């Protein structure tokens, strides 16, 4: 029986009712929803489809053959979590989501995939004919990985976390390159299956890349810094007669902020390499 579940099989049409055909293979009967069939099937004819146990614990067969099967890995979308069981993943089957056991998930519940996250899985079937999702291991990701290119340096990328370790997070980019995110280059640890936006900060000899999820310096500047930057951009010569030596009253009158806030903002801009300061003035670089 086990070898007939989560497989593409060809069976014989043996019966029907108002809603279903009955497809039999090696003495096992599967339901086929008539809504899938445009042209009526004849008794005794053959039908090929994918088999599974539906949410009502009935054996069913469908024309919809999912990309994710036994030993066929693909990305499925997480639809929910269930405490004490694991996560439910949509792989495209009618009335059936596949469970990934909590035994295969991070020990910290907050790092479990959430609704909308995606995980790469294949299917397994246990001795009770229950279908489970099996997470892809490192060897699978290495097998499908594409080589990195030199022009990726400093490029913005989106990548999905597939392995969480104390040393850092392994991810797969949209273009199927393997990336590594060190704890020092993130603001929080990504969940398994979470999509991370970052930039490439290093190329490794093993064909992978290091990425950072932290904003670039110019992206991290605060509102006061942004206001000063815009004022510089719109000045005639892209300079302003202000510096950290300017009086609090003149700063307050022109920018509407305190001298302390002004000095912090100027410091951010100098550190980001966006401005220069000399002779009592600030200049846009």
Overall geometry = elongated
**Spatial ordering of strands, largest sheet:** 3-2-1-4-5
CATH class of the largest domain: Mainly Beta
Query: Helix tally?
Result: 4
- Following the backbone from N to C, one meets helices and strands in this order, namely EEEEEEEEEEHEEEEEHEHHEE
Number of strands: 18
What this model shows, in words?
The chain has four helices and 18 strands. The chain has about 280 residues and is mainly beta. It has four domains: about 1-60, Beta Barrel (OB fold (Dihydrolipoamide Acetyltransferase, E2P)); about 75-135, OB fold (Dihydrolipoamide Acetyltransferase, E2P) (Beta Barrel), CATH 2.40.50; about 145-210, OB fold (Dihydrolipoamide Acetyltransferase, E2P) (Beta Barrel), CATH 2.40.50.140; about 220-285, Winged helix-like DNA-binding domain superfamily/Winged helix DNA-binding domain (Arc Repressor Mutant, subunit A, Orthogonal Bundle), CATH 1.10.10.10. A five-stranded antiparallel sheet has the order 3-2-1-4-5, with no helix packed on it. A hairpin with a 3-residue loop joins strand 1 (about 10-15) and strand 2 (about 20-25). Helix 2 packs across helix 4 (about 260-270). The termini are far apart. The mean pLDDT is about 90.
């Amino acid at each position: 029986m086990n070898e007939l579940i989560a497989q593409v099989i060809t069976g014989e049409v043996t019966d029907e009712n108002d809603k279903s055909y009955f497809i039999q293979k090696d003495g096992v009967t599967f339901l086929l929803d008539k809504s899938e069939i445009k042209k009526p099937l004849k008794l005794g004819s053959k039908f090929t489809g994918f088999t599974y146990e539906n949410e009502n614990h009935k054996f069913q067969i469908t024309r919809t053959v999912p990309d994710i099967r036994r030993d066929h890995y693909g990305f499925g979308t997480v639809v929910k979590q269930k405490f004490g069981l694991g996560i439910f993943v949509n792989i495209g089957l009618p009335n059936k989501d596949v469970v990934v056991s909590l035994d295969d998930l991070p020990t910290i519940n907050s790092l479990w995939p959430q609704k909308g996250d995606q995980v790469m899985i294949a299917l397994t079937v246990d001795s009770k004919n229950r279908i489970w999702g099996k997470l892809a291991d490192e060897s699978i990701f290495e097998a499908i990985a594409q080589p990195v290119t030199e022009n990726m340096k400093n490029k913005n990328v989106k990548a999905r976390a597939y392995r969480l370790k104390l040393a850092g997070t392994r991810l797969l980019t949209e273009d199927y390159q393997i990336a590594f995110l060190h704890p020092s280059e993130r603001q929080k640890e990504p969940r398994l299956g979470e999509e991370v936006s970052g930039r490439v900060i290093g190329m490794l000899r093993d064909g992978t890349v290091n990425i950072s999820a932290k904003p670039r310096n110019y992206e991290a500047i605060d509102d006061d810094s942004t206001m000063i930057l815009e004022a510089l951009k719109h000045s005639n010569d892209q300079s302003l007669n202000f510096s950290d030596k300017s009086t609090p009253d003149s700063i307050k009158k022109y920018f509407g902020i305190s001298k302390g806030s002004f000095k912090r903002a100027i410091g951010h801009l100098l550190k980001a390499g966006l401005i220069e300061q000399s002779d009592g003035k600030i200049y846009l670089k």
